[in-house]
Design brief:
Helix 10 packs antiparallel against helix 11, helix 10 packs across helix 18 and helix 11 crosses helix 18. The relative contact order is 0.12. The strands form 2 sheets. A 3-stranded antiparallel beta sheet has the order 1-2-3. It is built from 18 helices and 6 strands. The model has no long low-confidence stretch (mean pLDDT 94). The chain is mostly helical and 423 residues long. It folds into 3 domains: 55 residues, no CATH class; 190 residues, Citrate Synthase, domain 1; 102 residues, Cytochrome P450-Terp, domain 2 (Cytochrome p450-Terp, domain 2, Orthogonal Bundle), CATH 1.10.230.10. The longest helix is centred in the middle third of the chain and has 26 residues. Bound molecules: acetyl coenzyme *A (ACO). Acetyl coenzyme *A binds next to loops.
Length: 423
Amino acid sequence: MPDSITVTDNRTGKTLEIPIEDGGIAASEWSKLLPGIWFYDPGFTSTAACMSSISYLDGDAGILRYRGYPIEQLAENSTYLEVAYLLLNGELPTEEEYSNWEHEITHHTFIHENMRKRFLEGFHYDAHPMGMLVSAVAALSTFYADAKDIFNLESRDKQIIRLIAKMPTLAAAAHRFSIGMPFVYPDNGLHFAANFLSMMWKTAEFRFEANPVLSKALDVLFILHADHEQNCSTTAMRVVGSSHADPYSSCAAACAALYGPRHGGANEQVIRMLNSIGSLENVDPFIKQVKEGHGRLQGFGHRVYKNYDPRAKIIKRTADEVFKVTGKNPLLDIALKLEEVALNDDYFISRKLYPNVDFYSGLIYQAMGFPLEMFPVLFAIPRASGWLAHWVEMLDQDSKIARPRQLYNGTDSRDYVSIEKRV
Ligand code: ACO
């Protein structure tokens, strides 16, 4: 059997054999038979927009790998910074490479004083930290004019290091501003996650020492959120980057995509949902409502995973570690009951709806003291490395500018009517 399909245009009787390569069919081949006939695929549910060698995802089997390494092994043995290096460079670093990388990231954590004093402090007092982050990331492009030089590899590497290093600083600054606390400068003697926690929580102490279990848990969450192939925000990064915009502007677009409740905002929605359910006896009526089409079970379902999200399994274990330190999040019992009911209910089974990464991550963040508004921000910090890995891959592939077609279904041509003659 040849690895190909044959398409027949019934209007003309012409046929075309198209090879199936790497699990896909080249649209350029299709166009040879059917020029001007477009695939109608809103939401890109059946479209592969690129070749990529960064993350591998098998949604039916519940598998996620970064550069071939299973996510479970990385979460168990690696660190976020090592994973970021892996995503960007394709290989795990040697000791020397890691030490240089960590040094570079650690020494680019500071932001320009104008960014803090004039830009971030100009926001309204109750600005959402994710809105602030989206804008701050875009504003970085105005501080680093060399960022436009995207085909200069040295400049490209510099912007990548700056972005990964400054995300926690901007994130913590957005939080401190929103609660009226003074900004905390990075402490470059601390590891990545511990430094972020210091910028978040430090008050009058000489040095903020995060509980090592909590900084480790946060680092694991950063690993789990670092990349997830062509999700909505990564697609935004690649689409905007394909116009050859600088990486800060492209990253700001990706951040904006992550802001939405269907994507990075979902764990915030999970906590809101658990709060609104309030107690165990309300779980069954809530599930009934969802099945009747009133709202969704937040943190359940995924475009690609039609099985338990492997990241959710790791997060569930991490939650146990965190709760030993912080005390159990009172919403946990409701979440466990919801999961149990849903996993045994035909509505969710038949639609292959399982917990996704966001179902338990919010409970951890909340137990660690993060306000709900910070949840998408916490997601954006590590995802920046995935976005950048895809941006580099897209540039190295000399990708065309993203420019899909549409099927026009509007009004036919008509003549302009002056305002006094309109009815
Ligand atoms: N609760 C109840 N029903 C659901 C849910 C849910 N969470 N998710 C999907 N369904 C149902 C839909 O109503 C639909 O049912 P129908 O066939 O009877 O109409 C069916 O399952 C398919 O749903 P779609 O919306 O077509 O699936 P899609 O792949 O477009 O959506 C999404 C995926 C957006 C993640 C969806 O499952 C959802 O809204 N989940 C809740 C929000 C969430 O947790 N988002 C985080 C995703 S992970 C991440 O971004 C990091």
